[in-house]
Amino acid sequence: MNFVSNPLENNVLTEELWESIFNSTEVPMMLLNNDHRIIRINDCMKDVAKICDDVTGEKCYEIIHGSSEPPEFCPHSVTIGKNVKHTEEILLQDHWLLVTTSPFHDSDGKILGSAHIAQDITKLKESEEKVQNTIKLKDLLIKETHHRVKNNLITISGLLYLQSQHIGDADAKKVLLDSQNRARAMALIHQKLYSQENLESINLNYYFKQLLDEVVKTYTFGDKVQYILDVEDIALDTDTSLILGLIVNELVSNSLKYAFTENEEGAINVILHHNNGEFVLKISDNGNAISDDVDIENTGTFGLTIVNLLTNQIGGNVLIKRDHGTEFTIKFKSEHFTKDNGINE
Questions:
Q1: Dihedral of CA 16/21/22/23: which sign?
Q2: Which of 149, 209, 213, 223 has a Cα at 20 to 30 A from 242?
Q3: How far, in Å, CA of 232 to CA of 199, rounded?
């Protein structure tokens, strides 16, 4: 019978055998003492660090990093300072290493240094970089698309305005101006998406302010009719933001056209608050109230029909209150919102 010799029998591991196992391991490994001096370094770590000579006793940061002091990201400093295991991503030569350092102690529990085990993650980092570059390219293409759409909508808005200047019929002129405002409301969304980093949501406070400035300019009331904006700093997804912008455009335009006479002073309020995902949008004026026979569900006007259809798209409902003017209340829910604090401006 043949017996296989077991070099670890009786728990005996000779220094020669230990060194052989340590050096033959295809994982970069190194032992450092508390002074950052190299106690052991295996052949695999030498290959990664491009070290040919015996560097036992040398300071790691001088040999590995070529610096006179330990680098800020030094995992060994963290391990011996806090007596904890620590992991750090380190760029060494042309290799990215995921280095984990673990403390080792004497029989009394006193820390003597740390053991380094590294994993080459160069290919993973290269893949991550490719993904990031792809994402940046995609974002760039999306921004360029928003830029072109915005320019096209601005062009359409301009053409509608020019056409309105050559029409004598007052009703036809109003129709063109209304269409111009709708195109501008959509253009503002695309302008925002082109100019900001976040391509998925819109700061409604900032968007509504820009939108109302443009709408008020369209109707020549001077400073007689003011708007008051009370919108929380929240960001909603672009689809919902566009719908809300079109609704605000329609209702504020209606107030400017019908609620006030030419020389009458007044105010238009736009309020948007939310509570646990439920939003309440209110657009009100203190001018002439909308007629009692107007039913939002069966309105004969194109603008209010648009408001009703858009509200249905976001799963909301519309209420009209006629008391010292007109107040539209639109309630809807959305899970896709964030507290924005102006970051998308």
A1: positive
A2: 223
A3: 20
